[in-house]
Amino acid sequence: MYQPQKSDMFTFGLWTVGNPGRDPFGDAVRGAISPERMVEKLAGLGAHGVNLHDNDLVPFDATPSERDAIVASFKQALDDHGLKVPMATTNLFTHPVFKEGAFTANDPEVRQFAIQKTMRAIDLGVELGAETYVFWGGREGSEVDAAKDLPGGYKLFRDALNFLLGYVRDQGYNLRFALEAKPNEPRGHLFLPTTGAMLGFIETLDHPEMCGVNPEVAHETMAGLNFPHAVAQAIDAGKLFHIDLNDQDMGRYDQDFRFGSVQIKNNFFLVKLLEDSGYAGPKHFDAHAYRTEDENGVWDFAYGCMRNYMILKEKVQRFNDDAEIQGILQDLNPASSGWDRISGGYSSDVAAAVNSQEFDVAAMARRGYQYENLDQLAIEIIMGVR
């Protein structure tokens, strides 16, 4: 019952299963895996698709003819194995040219090159069938604030996205943008560090209707924030266009662990939120196998991400079907004609009625809310004893 199917919309980045296990203190421990093999193996495990940065597929210095040959081979593999490319993005952080930023670099030629590279990467993504384009500003930030006009940095980011929105519209592409937040790493301080910051920024763009967010578990959690709360805000705003699933210890570097391997309780409520809200988009695992693993371990990791989601999904159904739990939740959220009038919008009559209403504040203050019992029941569901 926990076997993933293509209909479950699980996706992986070429950079995730292709991660060679290199870290700041050690060289790669795994050899390169071809994109075609990644497609074949992920299809066999039940994945829906693969996502990519431009340079995950096409090397930075590839010639046009090399580029076309690489893309043709990859497209053939996708066709052979029935996988999709729902999302694409641009690598604006690896090459030394971006060491001081891309869209927000002080050097205007670097900014122009970043726009050119992104336009070409958008063309590639659309050619492969992508309908969502993610923007993660990995180098958009600073370590030395004296070197940056900070309000000007946000303007540069806005100008770049507005230009690219215009490009997508001019080309007639069926593509929407998903902005991804992160508080730090690789820069000391990144612009737009949280999902909430991204949601506010989107409303300043020329075409906010084309833009949403791509929140990531690790990026909010590493800052000590509650990830389901961030996702809930995106859902409330109608802006959850894509999501990156992985796992993370609070207060650590960006670990990108296998989904479901660390924050079990938070992951349960994240899956519950996605399932109960009817989120139907890709569930993308932006994670990678432990550095201890060989290639076989990479596929164990990929299958484990999907299987853990399926296990938690089944536990969510148990939670939702549990009569005692649902009874407590019903008691916690009683119907109220008085509140219905308030939520219906302001009027002078409703304001007068609220002002004249009498409340038994002492009785309300004495009320117990059964949170201990409810939380324990949820834990028992998660631990598989209920």
Description:
Helix 5 runs parallel beside helix 6 (150-171) and helix 10 (264-277) packs across helix 11. This protein is an alpha/beta fold and 386 residues long. The radius of gyration is 23 Å and the shape is globular. Helix 10 links the parallel strand 9 and strand 10 (283-285). The protein has helices at residues 14-17, 35-45, 54-57, 64-81, 108-127, 150-171, 195-202, 217-221, 227-236, 264-277, 295-321, 323-332, 337-343, 348-356, 361-366, 371-383, and strands spanning 10-13, 49-53, 87-89, 132-136, 141-142, 176-180, 189-190, 211-213, 243-245, 283-285.
Keywords for this entry:
386 residues, two-stranded antiparallel ribbon, alpha/beta, 8-stranded parallel beta sheet, TIM Barrel, 2 domains, single chain, 16 helices
Category from helices, strands and their pairing: alpha/beta
Instruction: Specify Rg, calculated over alpha carbons.
Output: 23 Å
**CATH topology title of the largest domain:** TIM Barrel
Largest sheet entry? 8 strands, parallel
Question: What is the fourth-level CATH superfamily of the largest domain?
Answer: Divalent-metal-dependent TIM barrel enzymes
Mean pLDDT: 97
N to C succession of SSEs: EHHEHHEHEEHEEHEHHEHEHHHHHH
CATH class label of the largest domain: Alpha Beta
The percent range for helix content is 40-55%
Described by the principal axes of the CA atoms, the overall outline is globular
Instruction: Report the uncertain regions.
Output: none
N-to-C terminal Cα separation, in Å? 18 Å
